[in-house]
Each structure stands twice: as C-alpha cells, then as structure tokens.
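Appendix B, record 7
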Amino acid sequence: MSGHSKWATTKHKKGALDKARGKLFAKLIRQVEVAAREGGGDLDANPTLRTMFQKARDASVPLDTIERAIKRGTGELEGVRYEHVTYEGYAPCGVAVIVECLTDNRNRTGADIRSIFTKNGGSIAEPGAVSWQFERKAIVVVPHGPGVNEDDLMLVAAEAGAEDVRDNGDGWEVVAPPAQLAAVRSAIEAQGWAVSSADLAMVPSQSVPIDNEPDARKVLRVIDILDDHDDVQSVWSNFDIPDSVMEMVEV
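Structure tokens (predicted):
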C-alpha cells in the first residue's frame, strides 16, 4: 500500500467537507462528456462511459446533469470540445508524478502545469520519462464491516477477474485489470457488501520513501496544487510517506 494511496484516501474524506462541490462536479461532468464523445452515449456499449457515469453518481451528481453531459458528448447538445492531455514530471525528492487533464486549450494548460512544477521545487519531464514506472489498474475499495472478510472477498473478486486484495487499514483495495472494473464491482455489490469507491488508477511499480515532515510537505504541496487546477482530472505519484509523518503534516 503506497503512501500516495493513503493520501488519496485522506483527501477523499477531507474533500467531502471542504472541497467545493461545484468544482468536483465540473471535473466529473467533463469526464462523462469526453467518454461519450469518444465511445458513444450507450452505457452498455461504452465501458468507459459506464465507469464515468457510475463515478459521477457515486459523487451525487444529479442524473439530469449527467444526461446533458452525455448529450453534449454525442453532439445532441452544443458544448466545449475537450481533449485528453497527460503531463509527466518530478516533485521534490525525485517523486514521479503523472498529471491527467481534460482541456479545451492545451497551450494554456501545459504552461500552467509546467509553472506549478517549477515554482514548487519540481520539474516537468518528457513523455515516457515517468509513465514507465506506473501501470493502470482498476481499484475497488471495500470498507471493513460485518459480514465481509478478506478470504470471502478474495474468492468473489477473483472469480470476477481481480488480481489481488490488499488491506489498507480502513478497508480492502481490490486490484484488477482496467477492463474488469465493472465486473468486479458488480460481483462485490451482489454479495451485499458496500463499495466506497471504484475507479481506474495508475499504480506505481516502485515507491520513493519520504520519512520526514519538511520533505513530505514539499511533495504534498505540489500534489495539492496540481489537483486543484480546473483542467486536472487525476494526479498519480509514487511517494511513500509513513503514517507517523503524515499525521504531522495533517496537523
């Protein structure tokens, strides 16, 4: 379990309280719209759209808002045309970072991302310089609770195509190939078990240990600023910060 995943979990809990809901909705709606444009508006025939639709619903985005985003994506309604752009770079301490964006102006977004890296002790990298250290996976998180144990979860998840189950302290992370995200989630929910999140993630093959508070603050500052940018959809990194250091940072 990487420190980044722990931070992502913390951000998720914190976000429910203090992150502007409108900003989160805008990012999710943009993902739905692009998925519909690239693969069509049929949820059954477009697995990417199905995943983004469910992600938006999990965040309580209104159904009619999602449906309008799908229609903009398919051309039934007018809308801004967004494109995928991925940037790679390094945060302080040599931490590898991947920034996934959806933008209507890649020149503006590229300049912004470069500036964030350079102004906060990091550096932008050439395409491919960082991404080889990551692999895209489906991650379904099941919280600890009565009626579910690791052995049963592993059995059900494996039958649906999962590769691994990891205990992250608050629950289990079920890891699967990207194409199996919907199948694994459905199999888990069919058992009556709760799913706190289900999404695609870039999982690092190796991590960079950050064992002191000053360095942890420097790294997390870059991650936070990148994540808050309107065009940024996801930020992935390979830092590993111990719980004891993370607790100091969060004070």
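Remarks on this record: The domain at 134-204 is CATH 3.30.70.980 (Alpha-Beta Plaits). The longest helix spans residues 21-39.
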